[in-house]
Structures are given as structure tokens and as C-alpha cells.
Specification:
It contains three helices and 31 strands. The protein has about 525 residues and is mainly beta.
């Protein structure tokens, strides 16, 4: 079949950087590269980058006819099974349950589920159906001393596109990526109460700008959204089961009315296009956490000088279809600042252990961004054990900001935040033929890294060591794209990129079985 040929060719030409046949046969990271940080009495270690960027072909004109072979002359663009350009895949990722396996040759295989956002929308939002893709991988960790050139580095994380799952909503309607300028009234659907939902007036479909992704043990999954910002529970087949509505302090309100548009900032609630970027769950799957990309409007949102104090929320989702999941926790998290006091928003979170989370904070610079030189892209850590739980307090009312004009209320203690894994360390990038800053070529690190996933290294000598996967959102930028049956040229070829790090996370609990 045609897809089989695509998969075979992709596995040969799309890879990232880990084990290399010409390098020394090292099996552990070099201690000289270790970076240690302390948080809440524990030491966490970034042992080194094991895989640089994976270039994932997204070529729209290379779909072969059934039974033919396919040669990939260009890694800049590839079309997935729906006919749309495969892009934006780093918006949310998760490892498929039960897929991660250590092989006898020291490699690791598995399936990574990647979720794009709302389609190519540089020129405006489009009627793009939310979805996720299944991609098989072979990870061959590279621990050698020598720097690899870019072509050699591409031999170390092999990727194979498998299939795509499309999301549907009530009455089996397609979801859409169009701007949410309409509101569907709250309604009882069977035994489930839908809150007021963001819709596109042109077709009345639920509009989703998908970001976070959590896969449950039964195959259902949660996806977080920027418009609501809501969190949706989807069936294993991709159909809407229920929606979680956040407190009033989070909902976008204009003149006292809910207004889901992402184009303009509301009066209160999440700022425009700054919804629930971060989503994760504890290992039991019974507690779901979501974090806003930056502060709410009443807490200084919409301005990088004042939007530092964002919110992490937690729900009990042990029985999500028996009634609205109760909010059980809410904390303030201080995002990192530039040397000029500008906020670096967060793009993803990941549960590590009780009270401890990874968080991906970054600027928007790099390949496909405003500037070639990035100043901050990191997977950091924060701890909420000493933070004030504000759920159910006056701060859930938008008229009572927790950080008016960006100044945190004195009664509130925020989470403890520490820097951890830098994605733009020059030495680590050079190990795989990558760089930060000019020139703007294929080896320039992508601008928008938006996802995190953990898998155990299965090293009995280092039981707390994990592989940290991260994937970039390339915004579907290609000179040869296809979306909804129409060709487009974004003026630049910005490849999808993956990276893998090895980290020590004492006490971490990761359930991907």
C-alpha cells in the first residue's frame, strides 16, 4: 500500500541524533557534561543531550501511487493521510501506552503521539479539524565524545509516520480551528452537562486550538485548548465525551460576557491565544493538571512586563462522566524573566513526582521565529509543596486578582521555580551539528518548542534516569504546503524537530505502561 512505502522511506530519511556507528561505544553520559540543580531538598541532573533535532519530512508532492516506491529528495515537507501538510506536531505529545520497549541491541522503540494545533493560520484561522498522529520511533542514545555533523546526527532517532486520528464533537461533527467568535449555550447531552462552548459561527462547530495531551490507560485522552480555555475528554476513537470548564477567573470575559476569540485580549481571564498550553496527569490518571501559558488579564496578562504570575490548576478526574470534575487545587507559578524583566511564557508541563513538575518556558526566537538568536528555551522545574493553594478562594473571582498589575498578593506564596535543561546550550547543540543564531539554515534550532514526554532509561545503575523527549511546533511553515486541498507557500521551509535528553529525576513516577 502507498502508506507502507511512505513509512519505509520516512524511516530511512527522517531521524534524529543518538547512537552513531562511527563513534565510541559508550553506554553512559560523560559526567563532565552534567548540570545539577537543587529543588526542595533534592538534586536533579541534566546529564546531556542524546538526540538533537529530528528532521521529519513533510513533503506534499511525494505521495506515491499504490504499490510504487518513494524516494525522499527533500526533508522540508510531507503530507499526512488526510492530504494536509504534517506540521505543528510539537503542540502536544505523549508516549503511547505500552509501546516503549528496550531492545537487546541497546536501542529503544515506541510510538509517540503528536498533536498539532489549529492548522496553518499565518494568514488567518482555517476550518482545520483537530487531530493527532501516531509516529513510531527507534532511539539509539549517543554517548560518544566526538561532535557529529548534522547528516550523521540524523541517523540516531528514526521516525516512521503511521496514521492520523481526527477529532469529532457532538453529533459526530468535525471540530474546527476557526476563531471562536461564537458561543454555544450550556446544554445537557445525555448524562453530561456541556458548559458554554466556543464555536465558529460559520458552521457552528466546536473550535479547538489543541495544545496539551494526556493519554489514559483505557485509550481515552485529554486535550487542552487555548480558546476556552477548556480541557476535553475524548474517546479512543476521537469523539468528544465531556468538557472541563475552569473557574471564572480563567474564562475570557468582555463586558461581563464570555468571549472566546483569540484575536483580542478580554477584560479578564486568559489573555488572547494564551490558554491551557500545559497539561499533565499524575501516574494514577486521577488528578489532571493544567497551566496557563501566562498570567490572566487581571493578573497582569497581555504584557510581558507584568504577565509573570501564571496559574496551575488541578482537578479530580477519577469519575469524569459522573459529573463535573471538582477543582481540587490551584497555585501561582512565577515564570522566568529575561535580563530586561520580560516574561518567558510556558508551553508545556509534565508531572515528575508529588508536587514537582517539569515546565517548558521559552522565547519565540529561532528558526521560524522573529530572530535567529534565542535567549531562553528550557525544561525547568517547579515545586508547589510550599505554595499557597488558592482554589475556592476570592482569587477565583476575576474581580479579585492574585497579582494586580503583575504584583503578587502578599498573602500568596508562589511555587519554587528553578532552571534545569537548556535547549540552546552551544556545546550540546554542536554535538549534533546544530546551532543557535545565524545562519538561518536547516541546522538552526526551531523557535517554538512546546511539548515534553518522559520514558525510563531502564538503567539499573541509575534507576532515576529518564529520557526527556521534546518536539517543536513548526507552525506548518513550508514553501510547498497543502491545507484543506489548497496549496500554500509560507516563504520558508521550517522542518519539524525533535530532541531527546537524559536527566536524573529523583523520586519520579512515570506511568506509560
Amino acid at each position: 500500500m502507498a502508506l507502507a512505502w511512505i513509512v519505509s522511506a520516512l524511516a530511512l530519511h527522517a531521524a534524529t541524533a543518538l547512537a552513531h556507528p562511527l563513534a565510541r561505544a559508550a553506554t553512559e553520559p560523560d559526567p563532565d557534561n552534567f548540570v545539577n540543580v537543587s529543588l526542595a531538598g533534592k538534586t536533579y541532573t541534566n546529564k546531556e543531550s542524546l538526540s538533537p533535532s529530528v528532521v521529519f519530512p513533510t513533503r506534499s508532492d511525494l505521495l506515491p501511487p499504490t504499490g510504487s516506491s518513494c524516494v525522499w529528495p527533500d526533508p522540508s515537507n510531507f503530507t499526512e493521510s488526510t492530504g494536509d501538510t504534517l506540521g505543528g506536531i510539537g503542540s502536544g505529545v505523549a508516549l503511547k501506552r505500552g509501546s516503549f520497549i528496550q531492545q537487546s541491541d541497546g536501542t529503544f522503540t515506541g510510538t509517540i503521539v503528536v498533536q498539532p494545533d489549529r492548522g496553518f493560520n499565518v494568514d488567518g484561522t482555517i476550518d482545520y479539524q483537530a487531530r493527532h498522529h501516531n509516529i513510531d520511533f527507534v532511539l539509539s542514545p549517543y554517548y560518544g565524545d566526538d561532535d557529529l555533523d548534522f547528516d550523521d546526527a540524523l541517523e540516531t532517532l528514526q521516525l516512521t509516520y503511521r496514521d492520523t486520528l481526527l477529532y469529532t464533537e457532538r453529533n459526530n461533527q468535525k471540530t474546527t480551528g476557526l476563531d471562536a467568535t461564537g458561543v454555544r449555550p450550556a446544554a445537557l447531552v445525555g448524562q453530561v452537562m456541556d458548559p458554554p462552548l466556543p464555536i465558529a459561527p460559520s458552521n457552528s462547530h466546536l473550535t479547538i486550538d489543541a495544545e496539551g495531551l494526556v493519554i489514559n490507560s483505557d485509550g481515552t485522552f485529554w486535550t487542552s485548548d487555548e480558546y476556552g480555555p477548556y480541557i476535553y475528554l475524548m474517546s479512543a476513537e476521537g469523539s468528544l465525551l465531556m468538557a472541563i470548564e475552569p473557574p471564572n477567573a480563567i474564562l475570557p470575559m468582555v463586558n461581563g460576557q464570555i468571549d472566546f476569540t483569540s484575536v483580542d485580549d478580554p477584560d479578564t481571564g486568559r489573555s488572547g491565544n494564551q490558554g491551557f498550553e500545559g497539561l499533565t496527569a499524575d501516574p494514577t490518571g486521577n488528578t489532571l493538571y493544567a497551566m496557563l501559558q501566562s498570567a490572566t488579564m487581571q493578573d497582569g496578562g497581555g504584557d510581558k512586563d507584568t504577565e509573570r504570575y501564571t496559574r496551575l490548576l488541578a482537578w479530580d478526574v477519577s469519575s469524569p462522566l459522573s459529573g463535573p470534575p471538582p477543582l481540587i487545587g490551584e497555585w501561582v507559578v512565577p515564570l522566568p524573566l529575561s535580563s530586561k524583566g520580560k516574561t518567558f511564557p510556558q508551553s508545556e508541563i509534565h508531572f515528575v513526582s508529588e508536587d514537582v513538575f517539569l515546565v517548558l518556558s521559552r522565547d519565540g526566537d529561532g528558526h521560524g521565529g522573529d530572530d535567529n538568536n534565542s535567549a531562553y528555551k528550557q525544561a525547568d522545574l517547579f515545586d508547589i509543596s510550599g505554595a499557597t493553594d488558592i482554589h475556592g478562594t476570592k482569587f477565583d473571582d476575576p474581580s479579585n486578582p492574585v497579582a494586580p498589575n503583575g504584583k503578587l498578593d502578599k498573602s500568596v506564596t508562589p511555587a519554587q521555580y528553578v532552571g534545569f535543561v537548556s535547549f540552546i546550550d552551544d556545546d550540546q547543540l554542536a554535538r549534533f551539528g546544530l546551532h543557535n543564531g545565524k545562519p538561518a539554515d536547516q541546522t538552526l534550532i526551531d523557535a517554538k518548542w512546546e511539548s515534553l514526554a518522559l520514558a525510563p532509561c531502564n538503567d539499573p545503575s541509575f534507576p532515576d534516569d529518564y529520557f526527556l523527549f521534546t518536539v517543536a511546533d513548526n507552525d506548518y511553515i513550508t514553501t510547498d504546503g497543502s491545507m484543506l486541498g489548497q496549496p500554500y507557500d509560507a516563504g520558508l521551509d521550517n522542518d519539524n524537530q525533535f530532541m531527546v535528553f537524559r536527566v536524573t529525576l529523583p523520586g519520579a513516577t512515570v506511568n506509560i505502561a
